Request: fold
Amino acid sequence: MRKRFSTSALLMLAFLVFGVIASGCQTVPAVEPTKAPAAATQAPAAATKAPVAEPTKAPAATTAPASPAVPGAMTDVGTPRSETLIFQTFDRQTANPDQHNPLMAYAQWRGFRELGWGYLWEMDTGTGKSYNELAADFPEVLNKEYTQFRVKLKQGIYWSDGVEFTADDIIYTLDTILNNKAKITSGGARTVSNYVKSFKKVDKYTFEVETVGPKYDFITVFGTYTWGANLTILPKHVYEKQADVITFRNTKPVTLGPYTLKQFDPNGYWALWERREDWKRSAWGWMGEPKPKYVLYKDFGPEETRLLAFMQNQYDVDTFMAPDSIKAAQQKNPAVTTFAKTMPYHNMNDACPYGVLINQHRAPLDKPEVRWALALSLDLQSVGINSMSGEFKATPLPMADTEILRPIYFEPLMPWLKDFALSDGYKPFNANFSPELAARLQKMGQPASALPQGDKAISEAFGVGWWKYDVAEAEKLLTSVGFKKNSAGAWLQPDGSVWQLEFVIPGDWNKVMQRIGFSMADS
Reply:
């Protein structure tokens, strides 16, 4: 079995905001549920009916490898290794493993969204094309104001408990969201609650929606275009029986997707999903049979620990691992591969770039001169080399530089970027950033075979350009708005106080983002 990494490390800066957007691609920050599980050491009541395998502690990396190449090998949750696809969980251990109520914040990154659910429309982020999943076609726009839409559903799709999926589920979901607007904590559900004005059922497989004002993004709001959807449809026949749909934890969810939750660790280290016997009647049935019978999401510990597990074939996919760890894994295990054979090695068409968000309402960051000074004082080449071994792609626009977005935004805006000037006439864009980075990497010892060759390949690998590294211009901008240096060389704000920047970066669950944060602070 060939293993793949899919780590996108794109660093981005908005026009007037020194910023890099945090990967994970959450459109709305997750909010913790109003109540935590009763006790982390006790299995939720619904989960006790199905056997919950150990461990209750983070697994040790020294356990014997469960290599898929070994005939008859079993996973530590009791499934055949040859039939089980194993992922390192995106965000390590979860605090609410029994919470699967999409009206509330729930156990994310563990299959509920990815395997258990179905959505009206999905998007292939590699091509930018949307396709119908639960919907029979794209929505019909009913008026020129783009406020009224009609949606027809596919027939023959069933929930995992055998109940047919119909427009009644959609109507019930919208009604429940709007009636509980003040209580729901799911960011997606909150978005829907402010998006919909009215709705009605037309027939068993058709419904209509009126939106609050013109909405040209109906497909992306009612469907999904990156990692999750705002509208997660509730099974009416399950939720209407609950005394309180807000406190209901939906521990053993019925699903529209081709997998169901088989068992999970009550301490939040793993969740096991099993392919439905009637997968053809699921939301994905038209796509063909999902190959793995089981999918296990598991936390193998911090990067230093899970690296050993990865070398031993204990799991198959990791999305957050530092470049030096990847190289160490490849040296020990020839089955470990990356997306590409040349730098930056990883799939840079991810819709979610890494980055920094700045509070522009907080002085002195409300001044564009200050934000530009920060941008021009950041040596991004050194940041990317020190934190990611040069395996990154820079983007000067507030979006990822992908095969989809490049011809739409980046290429047409290149003349504008090159001509763009600050208020003092200074032109900050460096169109030679990527060739300079490639040359620097080669000078540092990277063999030519590991680097993209030619202007086009270098641009596609490392980006169209970045802002210049110009400390002198940065100082000029700061002094223009009242900043000055003291005798110790520290910058003073116009009120005379020492200027300090506070960085908030991820903890040990994401060493890649942590490294980038520290490297930027050092720069």
